[in-house]
Amino acid sequence: MVIGVPGFLPATPFGIVELLKRYRIETTGKNCVVIGRSNIVGRPLSILLSQRGMDATVTVVHSKTRNIAGFLREADIIIAAMGSPSFVKADMVKVGAVVIDVGTTSVPSQYSKSGWKLTGDVDFDNVAPKCSYITPVPGGVGPMTRVALLRNTLLAVEMNDAAR
What we know:
- The model has no long low-confidence stretch (mean pLDDT 94).
- It contains five helices and seven strands.
- The relative contact order is 0.17.
- 33% of the residues lie in helices and 17% in strands.
- It has helices at residues 11-22, 42-50, 68-73, 124-127, 141-163; strands at residues 31-35, 57-61, 77-80, 98-101, 105-108, 116-119, 133-134.
- By secondary structure, the chain is α/β, with parallel strands linked by helices.
- It has a single domain (11-158), classed as NAD(P)-binding Rossmann-like Domain (Rossmann fold).
- It has a five-stranded parallel sheet. A two-stranded antiparallel sheet has the order 5-6.
């Protein structure tokens, strides 16, 4: 993945890249901030977004980054993958930004039978009016992760057939 050789890609980062491509969201030269440096999402996503063809300028921020809000205010694309419910607030996002919420945390809810609801890293209701695009939680990145898993499965079958 790091050197751009075709192969299996981490499912969630690949799904996010596909989401950007399918909605024709321009990434070339765009300032993209990835919140979170996990080995599953943040780091591989930063690599994929900076590769030729995507050509984004990527900044990775994390729990030890000073003034995260300052980085976010300058971002054309924000990808929140830190696991902190409703961390990204409206005053951290510039008008017209693309916001992709990868976070999934169960929080108490008096409105559901289970007493819980799934929420993301972005304060969706307050951030959405400022965005050109925003993904919901649930229903945004999760389906794209499943598509990417299916793509990896298909690739494995094709590689197996070719090896015979």
